[in-house]
Design goal:
It is built from ten helices and 14 strands. With about 325 residues, the protein is an alpha/beta fold. The chain folds into two domains: about 20-235, P-loop containing nucleotide triphosphate hydrolases (Rossmann fold); about 240-310. The strands form three sheets. It has a six-stranded mixed β-sheet, with helices on both faces. It is elongated, with a radius of gyration of 23 Å. About 35% of the residues are buried. Residues about 1-20 and about 320 have low confidence and may be disordered.
Amino acid sequence: MPASNLQVVPRSEAPPSPAVSDYVIETDQLDLLYGRKKALNQLTLRIPRGRIHAIVGANGAGKSSLFRVLLGFQSPTSGRARILGHDCTKLTERERARIGFVNEEHSVPAWLRVDEVVGMQRRLYPQWDEARYQSIVGHFHVLPEQRIAELSRGERAGVNLAMALAQGPELLILDEPTLGLDVVAKRAFLETVLFSVDDTDTTIIYCSHQMEEIERLADNLIILERGELKHMSPPDEFCERVQLWIAEFPFVAPADLPGVLHTQRIDGLFHCLVLDQDDGFGALLEARGARRQYRTTVNLDRAVNAFLTRGHAAPAREEGGE
């Protein structure tokens, strides 16, 4: 069984803050409380400029709370948060114009026509790029005379993304933007995000529970848990830290193995996902009575899920079972 006292911490301490221009987001000892519950807990985070940074975590990890603080919608209980070098509690209209935001709701006034909504946005942002808007929205086959209420969820997502990118943001925050989209709309959305990174200097913060999206998009993986930073690295580096060992034990598998994230018995074999273990883990399995054992790699979805659910044993699945 997994060790109950397993401690999982970021591989390295957060570096000291250099010039503010090096980071799009900086937080220092950030706390946010709702009554007695801590949504953010002493969060110190540095997200550098450029490329796509994915923020993942279970429900309640603090992702939405972090975005509310960063966008100035909510003041932290204590600590400090800066976005594009500015205090998040004192953002001006000019500073907000440098930030794009698309959430899962894709909320736009349903009674307006598409061209009316776009016209309002165009007047708000002096850096508006009409050619860019038209190029992006064209992938979603939206007509300017359509009312928002007539659009599918995927079409509304496309309009929101096109408007967010047309304003010329330095930072674009995407919070579960593909939730509820069909496969065609999702593909168009993700390809647009990838193209925008290659075509502009926009830094993207991408929040999603869909690990296949993170694997495809992200250059940097940030894992939050209960309001704390638990890991930050490129996704492939995180996958290298998590390995699956499969072993056959004649009797009960040992319970006090190091680095265990998750264990399960499948068709009579002991499956053990571990963190930061080398070849010595296989030798340890043999020393504990394993008749045979081998190691294999896992994808990002399985690695992150094991990391976030560590300490929770999975039910056995015997041969012939579901």
